[in-house]
Automatic annotation (TrEMBL), chain A:
<dbReference type="GO" id="GO:0005737">
    <property type="term" value="C:cytoplasm"/>
</dbReference>
<dbReference type="InterPro" id="IPR036188">
    <property type="entry name" value="FAD/NAD-bd_sf"/>
</dbReference>
<protein>
    <submittedName>
        <fullName>FAD-dependent oxidoreductase</fullName>
    </submittedName>
</protein>
<dbReference type="InterPro" id="IPR006076">
    <property type="entry name" value="FAD-dep_OxRdtase"/>
</dbReference>
<keyword id="KW-0560">Oxidoreductase</keyword>
<dbReference type="Pfam" id="PF01266">
    <property type="entry name" value="DAO"/>
</dbReference>
<dbReference type="GO" id="GO:0016491">
    <property type="term" value="F:oxidoreductase activity"/>
</dbReference>
<feature type="domain" description="FAD dependent oxidoreductase">
    <location>
        <begin position="6"/>
        <end position="347"/>
    </location>
</feature>
TrEMBL record, chain B:
<protein>
    <submittedName>
        <fullName>Putative Rieske (2Fe-2S)-binding protein</fullName>
    </submittedName>
</protein>
<dbReference type="InterPro" id="IPR041854">
    <property type="entry name" value="BFD-like_2Fe2S-bd_dom_sf"/>
</dbReference>
<dbReference type="InterPro" id="IPR017224">
    <property type="entry name" value="Opine_Oxase_asu/HCN_bsu"/>
</dbReference>
<dbReference type="Pfam" id="PF07992">
    <property type="entry name" value="Pyr_redox_2"/>
</dbReference>
<keyword id="KW-0560">Oxidoreductase</keyword>
<dbReference type="InterPro" id="IPR051691">
    <property type="entry name" value="Metab_Enz_Cyan_OpOx_G3PDH"/>
</dbReference>
<feature type="domain" description="FAD/NAD(P)-binding">
    <location>
        <begin position="13"/>
        <end position="320"/>
    </location>
</feature>
<dbReference type="InterPro" id="IPR036188">
    <property type="entry name" value="FAD/NAD-bd_sf"/>
</dbReference>
<feature type="domain" description="SoxA A3">
    <location>
        <begin position="377"/>
        <end position="457"/>
    </location>
</feature>
Length: 372, 467
């Protein structure tokens, strides 16, 4: 029997779930269709970085908005998301790198954003006592943080369920068709709604393509490695400037290291695979910046399937071709932090047709199809 | 660019992981068939678990360990006489889908690419979760035996707690060594003999095993050690260190004092490599474990990956060696080589060697206490997760071990779930009233064994075109 709703969301990641939650809070009836289980992919397995620091300028307003929701998220959800406020710091390994950060802070200030600040050498040592001697300073966003991704995404979905959202897990959307309303056909059922959100992560490009919208989503597998527990030496989430690194000591003492390098991702089989040779430089960078890491042992690794756009910023906004179709995908390995704010924004856009945010940088029609 | 010594190949026809009976036999046979073979094992020397340290036996140690142990020496000698490249102290810590093996040897990591991979990584002891099993001084019967084989050391005053042939064997070996266990607490539930009887006729075809087993048990019973039967409600007491073990046997509570408690609930296939490679597995209700799904010739669901020995399902040393040879022959055939021996004879020998198994499996299936531990019992030792916490995660909606892992970190510690995996899965299955196959198992992620970060920084990968 055909089921109907005001909005059908495709994808039970953090973007689909949070849009569903905020839409339901606005009074819409919502069905989320997820081919696996909620938080099975990027949204449940990411590194948990809640980072505004260093974002593409186009993302800064939305990321800032998301941060404000993050501060109250656990209260709003009535759940532990493992969220902690912590500094995010990009260390500068030479003066030239520090100059680049100074220029960025000026640009942000001109845009009216003041969350990123320059740390000089004593300040960077204050926040990172274990940092290597050659580090000359850094760029910091002191009230960023980190969270437990699986707890967060499933808590958003649980709250959405309480607000009336229906989650259909283990059901895959096969096709979409628009007559008066959208008809969404899955491998098990048929649904109808005036509005549809494509929040299908690494799989979203194929869905958009099936409706004639070109979105070159590349499936990538960011790689993370985890060490055995070390004595507490770092409270901040740390990145490097001139070479890829993301570095975080967890509350239990283990250190999670990632940054930039990619394994193999396969959207057909839902799998991702580690390629350790790619991580040689990452390992070396971690030891260079934190000499204490020379004695660390890797006990685990993981990766997940994530959707990346060629310009490393997502597709967010209405379809360029079809009424009642919206997109929110391709967060290019940094969409966890954006989850709450983008969901809230999309819910508003979907319900009212308008938003205070300028989404033009994220428009789906910014990519020219290969044959034109 | 790569700095491999000429001794170490970078590309082979067959990589065999594990130098126990299955691995040694597979390597020798594949090599006889004209294939280039590397045999990799993290141990110092040939032999795997059962034939550990087999090439360095002294008459005294041979005497303690017995005839079946000494049999491994012939296999080791044939390996030494073959063209197989044997790499001891070599840990395979990752295998990628293009058949590239990441190896750690003597503190540095390199790669080896293989056309075919034979997983001969044997068995691990089934976990025996019970109150107090994480205390210092608690070990496993298997670990006691490793100590005995590797360095001739016998733990004094040990109390053996559990069930299964290996526990009796080790007890007998300890007695022969002149250091008998302080007591044996047998947890095989009452009525098991009746359940095993239907298999006795078949088992009699393998009467050599039955005779050996019975004489072993007789030797232990005759040695004057206290033996408690059908023990239930077993728990280990102590603050940091184990001080005693308490249990009920024949309706009476007993407490035995010792700082050395060795647990055992039989052995199960070591799934780490086959799970890493995402081979299909199926629950075996008779052996109470997951086994990789194999065709008749040891081939898994993943191309080029084979399993031989206890990793395929528990069959013991002799079956392991027979399977090793069969798998090597299957690969030789696929590669168009002339076969150095006849398949049908090996198959017949394998069938007859396995005759005793259904009897043993019915007799020594794990007791309920260890399959469904009480709420407050710690199940994941690395992250200290209790059975009750796992049940709560299931109630919160976690449908399988991987979601429970995401909630609770169970299986995320240094052992990578090797110890707790089966128990976590059975607690989830029980709570959800789902089958073990529906419940599944942890996804295993590399490294299979911890490696230093500095070793990763100095990793020397092969520079070959990706397949
Ligand atoms: C290893 C790793 C580390 C990361 N670290 C960070 C970090 O520290 N900070 C940060 O901000 N971001 C990080 N990210 C990125 C972040 O996780 C993602 O950008 C974000 O989770 C994307 O959310 P999503 O909802 O768009 O996608 P997903 O979570 O992938 O959700 C999409 C869902 O759609 C479902 N789906 C697809 N097709 C269909 C269909 N046809 N029918 C039904 N359902 C379908 C999929 O099964 C999937 O569950 C990381 C990502 C990875 C992989």
């Amino acid at each position: 029997m055909t089921q109907t709703a005001d909005l059908i969301v495709i994808g039970g990641g953090i973007h689909g779930s949070s849009t569903a939650l905020f839409a339901a809070l606005r009074g819409m009836s919502v069905i989320v269709i997820e081919k696996d289980t909620v938080a099975r992919h990027a949204s449940g397995v990411n590194a948990g970085g809640v980072r505004r620091l260093g974002r593409h300028l186009a993302e800064v307003p939305l990321s800032q908005h998301s941060m404000e929701i993050w501060y109250g998220l656990q209260d709003m959800l009535g759940a532990d998301c493992g969220f902690q406020i912590a500094p995010q710091i990009k260390v500068a390994e030479n003066e030239e790198e520090l100059d680049r950060h100074r220029a960025r802070v000026q640009t942000l200030n001109r845009m009216g954003f003041y969350h990123e600040t320059i740390l000089d050498q004593p300040q960077v040592r204050h926040y990172l006592p274990a940092v290597a001697d050659h580090v000359v300073g850094g760029l910091a966003s002191l009230r960023d943080g980190f969270a437990q991704p699986f707890w967060t995404t499933t808590a958003i979905a649980r709250k959405a369920t309480q607000a009336g959202v229906v989650f259909k897990e283990g059901e895959r959307v096969l096709s979409l068709k628009r007559e008066t309303d959208w008809t969404v056909t899955t491998d098990q059922d048929i649904y109808q709604a005036p509005k549809v959100l494509n929040a299908a992560g690494a799989w979203a490009g194929a869905l958009a393509g099936s409706l004639g919208e070109y979105a070159p989503v590349e499936a990538i597998a960011p790689m993370m490695i985890v060490t055995a527990r070390l004595p507490k030496f770092c409270d901040a989430v740390v990145g490097a400037t001139g070479r890829p690194l993301s570095f975080k000591q967890m509350p239990n003492g283990t250190v999670v290291i990632g940054g930039g390098r990619r394994g193999r991702a396969d959207t057909a089989t839902n799998t991702s695979e580690m390629l350790f040779p790619e991580l040689r430089n990452t390992a070396a960078t971690a030891m260079d910046i934190f000499p204490i890491m020379r004695g660390a042992t890797i006990v685990r690794s993981w990766s997940g399937v994530e959707g990346r756009m060629p310009d490393d910023i997502p597709v967010i906004g209405p379809s360029a071709l079809h009424d009642g179709l919206y997109h929110s995908f391709g967060f290019s390995a940094h969409g966890f932090q954006m989850g709450p704010g983008t969901g809230e924004t999309m819910a508003g856009l979907i319900e009212t047709g308008a938003t205070q945010f300028d989404l033009s940088a994220f428009a789906i029609d910014r990519f020219a199809p290969p044959n034109t | 660019m790569t700095q491999h010594s000429p001794m170490e190949p970078t590309k082979v026809d067959v990589a065999v992981i594990g130098a126990g009976p299955a691995g040694m036999a597979a390597a020798v046979t594949a090599s006889k068939a004209g294939l280039s073979v590397a045999l990799l094992d993290e141990g110092q020397s040939l032999g795997g678990q059962i034939y550990r340290n087999i090439e360095n036996g002294t008459p005294f140690r041979d005497g303690i360990l017995g005839r079946d142990y000494v049999a491994g020496r012939t296999l080791a000698q044939s390996l030494r006489a073959s063209d197989v490249t044997y790499l001891p102290r070599t840990t395979v810590w990752n295998i990628s889908t293009d058949n590239m093996l990441d190896l750690s040897r003597d503190g540095s990591s390199s790669q080896l690419i293989a056309d075919k991979i034979i997983v001969a990584t044997g068995a691990v002891e089934r976990p025996s979760p019970m109150p107090g099993w994480t205390l210092a001084g608690v070990t496993t019967v298997g670990a006691l035996q490793i100590l005995l084989k590797a360095s001739g050391v016998v733990q004094e005053d040990a109390v053996l707690v559990g069930s299964g042939p290996l526990m009796w064997l080790v007890a007998a070996q300890m007695i022969s060594a002149g250091t008998p266990p302080k007591a044996i607490v047998e947890t095989t539930p009452k009525g098991r003999m009746a359940q095993a009887m239907p298999h006795i006729l078949q088992a009699l075809k393998g009467h050599r095993y039955l005779t050996k087993g019975l004489s072993m048990i007789r030797q232990v019973r005759g040695a004057g050690i206290p033996i408690y039967n059908a023990a239930t409600n077993v728990r280990i007491n102590g603050g940091e260190v184990a001080e005693s073990v308490t249990f009920i046997s024949k309706g009476k509570e007993h407490t035995i004092h010792s700082n050395h408690i060795a647990l055992h609930q039989g052995v199960v296939p070591n799934q780490q490599v086959t799970r890493l490679l995402r081979c299909d597995h199926k629950w075996d209700a008779s052996q109470h474990c997951f086994r990789p799904v194999l065709d008749g010739q040891g081939k898994t669901s993943v191309p080029d990956v084979y399993v031989a020995g206890d990793g395929a399902g528990i069959g013991g040393a002799k079956s392991a060696a027979l399977m090793g040879r069969l798998v090597a022959l299957a690969i030789a055939q696929e590669k168009g080589k002339a076969l150095p021996e006849r398949v049908d004879r090996l198959e017949a020998a394998l069938a007859s060697d396995g005759a005793v198994r259904p009897f043993l499996e019915a007799m020594y299936a794990p007791a309920p206490q260890f399959v469904k531990p009480a709420k407050e019992t710690i199940v994941c030792r690395c992250e200290e997760v209790t059975a009750g916490a796992i049940q709560e995660a299931v109630d919160l909606g976690a449908p399988g071990p991987n979601q429970v892992k995401s909630f609770l970190r169970s299986g995320m510690g240094p052992c990578q779930g090797r110890v707790c995996g089966l128990v976590v899965a059975s607690i989830i299955a029980e709570r959800r009233k789902a089958s073990m196959d529906e419940t599944g198992y942890y996804r295993i992620r590399p490294p299979l064994k911890p490696i230093p970060l500095s070793e990763l920084a100095n990793f020397q990968p092969l520079e070959v075109a990706q397949k």
